[in-house]
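haha ok so turns out i had the wrong file open the whole time. this is the CORRECT one, sorry everyone. sequence first:
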Amino acid sequence: MSIDKDILDRLMEGRSPGDLFGKSGILSELTKALAERALNTEMTLHLDEERANGASAEDNQPPNRRNGNSQKTVTTESGKVVLDIPRDRNGTFDPMLIAKYQRRFPEFDRKIISMYARGLTTREIQGHIEEIYGVEASPSLISAITDAVMEEVAAWQNRPLEPCYPIVFMDAIRVNIRSDGTVSNKAVFVALAILPDGTRDVLGLWFQANEGAKFWAKVLSDLRNRGVQDILIAVVDGLKGFPQAIEAAFPRTRIQTCIVHLLRHSMSFASYKDRKAIATALKAIYTAVDATEAEAALGGFEESDLARQYPAIAPSWRRAWNEVIPFLDYPPEVRRLIYTTNAIEALNSKIRRAVHTRGHFPSEEAAAKLIYLTLNATSAEWKRSVREWYAVRCQLAIMFDERFPMA
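then structure:
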């Protein structure tokens, strides 16, 4: 519903555009007027409901009625506003718009959470709040507002999951956590899944100092306990011990190493001038029609001058070969999707940008809070459906038959 232009003209009469914002701007006046109007409407409804329920009649008391106002200073998006809060004689009125002990409008809290999710430090948030709203926000206030999401984080971390995920990308980023007076570098493990409808979802976050087999077993056990019964394809990024842990928890899952990760690892051994030639030679391996042709291409590379010049490249492909060749069984639609862990790397890059300004976190809970808020703030980007998903789903239904029916 739009506001009548005549009303807007009357509101702006005698004012300049600069009078809109600030402590004494028209927006502050409108907030006060509209809030007090809503509070008085709430009071009228409250008294009407009490009379309809006969609350006073049962105690032989006179009907409840208004009993003046009390003033409360609340923080809004446009600054501090002094509201006249209506009171009732019996003291039973507890407004929904601004509760008895509430001193900030919900939108104000959401602004702070949004800034926090975008990686701003407490000091930066303080400066923005002071500059934009003319309100002092102490570090303890900012912490209290952002800490309020921890229950939500815990519920999200323990929520039930789907019984089957077609594809799960698994990777880890590093964050600095303070513990017992020292700062240690810990891995935050992220699992990004593609759902049966083609949309994406982050299944959870897991913290660990070392990315060993026991840690991966714990992660996968958690997924099973939350309802995951099957993963068709798990795309991993060269994480030590991870393929073995997946095989133990989900024996039917096909494990696929990230081809791009292997290529980047290979290029790290080569001089810049030779990288294009190496990329061309290695492309013949992962674009092969089948495993036999890929084996021949790798063998050909091993006999080349490039392989002799850079002897570490070919063995790195041999070591990962069992996790490379499943890729060759898939049709082009599926290959394009699982060719790389770029989907999760793009997500992790958003997380890294947010945590970069922090330096280190006082606890794992503080890191989890920021990462969760970052995921929420950027969800529109990473949750969107996979391109060409219908074609991919059809191919997966053929390949995995009863494990992933189309219906």
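The chain has 20 helices and seven strands.
again sry for the mixup
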